[in-house]
Amino acid sequence: MSLTRRQVTTAALAAVPLSAAATPHAATAAAGSRPVRTIHLAGDSTAAQKYADAAPETGWGMALPFFLSKDVVVANHAVNGRSSKSFIDEGRLDAVLGAIRPGDFLLVQFGHNDSKAEDPTRYTEPWTTYQDHLRQYVDGARARGARPVLATSVERRRFDAEGNALRTHGDYPAAMRALAEVEGVALLDIEALSFALWQRLGAEETKKYFNWTATEQDNTHVNPPGAIAVARLVAGELLRRRLLAHRDVRRLDDEIPDSWISWPEA
To answer: Which residues contact 59 (CB under 8 A, 6 or more apart)?
Structure first.
């Protein structure tokens, strides 16, 4: 299946952080067309837009537009190294909430950096401050007529000597699941889904999905095949949870070429 140059350009622009791309609300929808909705993505380096100096490292948010229709676009606000706390403390959540509109989604994935107990600017405790900070995203989205969506962190690549995948996020996924249930928020359990995928692929095959190069063995960040695989999980869950309709999602069963991923200059 091929993609036109215009479609590739549109998908790439949809993945650029909001500060570098116009919001879809700035343009008026064509007569008779459905209104464009935006998925605002707040998260860390595993989801973030990457640039030429980081290739082949790829955030899964860069690949998500490949699975969405033209009526659903992605504003990728995720930033390397951020936790649910530091993203708020730096004013980034306020900026997202300033751009969000009724009918939009706020998709939140944090946890990788919340566990860094040695760094008080990022650390949160799973069952208290982590949940407290996540509530600020939930409440902020709802106050603006948007739909909050929580996503557990994509699992790292870690295996034991017998080839069994190992979980690495401690209590953070469970804390997010519990919060989602209490607050009535839609949950995409990407940690569980990615864990199952890595287990199915195995220790050797998963190297093809992570940022393994001649000079680096990175078991946290993915490359283009990994980003496409995780984005497919996210899009599938958005459909399964009925957050998006079938007409909003495409290519879930199609092979997506790695060449669709590009890294712009910073």
So the answer is: 45, 46, 47, 48, 49, 50, 76, 78, 221, 227
* Residue 109 C-alpha from the chain's centroid: 6
Closest by CA to 93, choosing from 104, 105, 78, is 78
CA dist 228 and 208 (Å) reads: 12
Query: 212: which 2 tokens?
Result: 């393994």
Q: Indicate if the pLDDT at residue 10 is higher than 60.
A: no
Per-residue three-class SS string for the chain: CCCCHHHHHHHHHHCCCHHHCCCHHHCCCCCCCCCCEEEEEEECCCCCCCCHHHCCCECHHHHHHHHECCCEEEEECCCCCCCHHHHHHCCHHHHHHHHCCCCCEEEEECCCCCCCCCCCCCCCCHHHHHHHHHHHHHHHHHHCCCEEEEECCCCCCCECCCCCECCCCCCHHHHHHHHHHHHCCEEECHHHHHHHHHHHHHHHHHHHCEEECCCCEEEEEECHHHHHHHHHHHHHHHHHCCCCCHHHECCCCCCCCHHHCCCCCC
In whole numbers, what is the pLDDT of the chain averaged over residues? 90
Residue 35's pLDDT is: 79
C-alpha to C-alpha distance for 32 and 47, rounded to whole angstroms: 34
